[in-house]
Amino acid sequence: MYKKKQYVFDGETPVAATIRNYNASDFPELIAIQQESFPPPFPSELWWNEEQLANHVELYPEGAICLEIAGELAGSITALLMDFDPDHPEHTWEEATDSGYIRNHNPDGKTLYVVDICIRPKFRSLKLGHLLMQALYERVVQDGLERVLGGGRMPGYHNYTQTLTAEQYAEQVLEGKLKDPVISFLLRCGRTPVSVVPNYLEDEESKGYALLMEWKNPFWDK
């Protein structure tokens, strides 16, 4: 199992952080974090429920990770193992994650797929998302997996639908002409683009689009 302690910075002040696997005692707070992190118009039915969380810790506890600041849960990231065909990248979030229940987790899969990442709003200035993503990269290296993969929402896209296609919007974010809260964050975490995926998630801000992004294991050996 995974447990790591390090410091993050609140301005110039070091703050102790603990990254670890979550368990059943964390479920109520994890659900509260989802509600705070994804307010409307994000669909409330996509917030975690206890059955989903129970599946995470039973089917693939290595991919169920949370982060504490001063004993308070500040965020979480969840992943499963799957097979991925780069020649056929299009899929939906529901297909890849079994609608968040991860009953399709494949213990022999070589792609670590990000089901969800969220940070409590009051902690977002601490850049905790980078620590959670790093935990997945460490898992990929530890277990000899090929990549981290996941669809990045494009919540800024709804402001440009009259002038840009989803592909053009993603390209302008990659060129630094536009900033997107999610895609720009993932780029800073070391993720690289694979393709724009339509109808990925019921998400009005992204108009259903996502940018599929990966982190390839630099030590991967077929």
End-to-end Cα distance, whole Å, is: 25 Å
Please count the helical segments: 6
Query: If you compute it from the alpha carbons, what radius of gyration comes out, rounded to the nearest whole angstrom?
Result: 17 Å
Largest sheet: 8 strands, mixed
Strand content: 25-35%
As residue ranges, the low-confidence spans are: none
Overall structural class, as computed from helix and strand content, comes to alpha+beta
Mean pLDDT: 95
Q: Give the topology string: H per helix, E per strand.
A: EEHHEEHEHEHHEE
Broad shape = globular
- The percent of residues in helical segments reads 25-40%
Major beta sheet, strand line-up: 1-2-3-4-5-6-8-7
Query: How many strand elements?
Result: 8
Word description of this protein:
By secondary structure, this protein is of the alpha+beta class. 25% of the residues lie in helices and 28% in strands. An 8-stranded mixed β-sheet has the order 1-2-3-4-5-6-8-7, with helices on both faces. The radius of gyration is 17 Å and the shape is globular. It starts with a strand and ends in a 6-residue tail after the last strand. The mean pLDDT is 95.
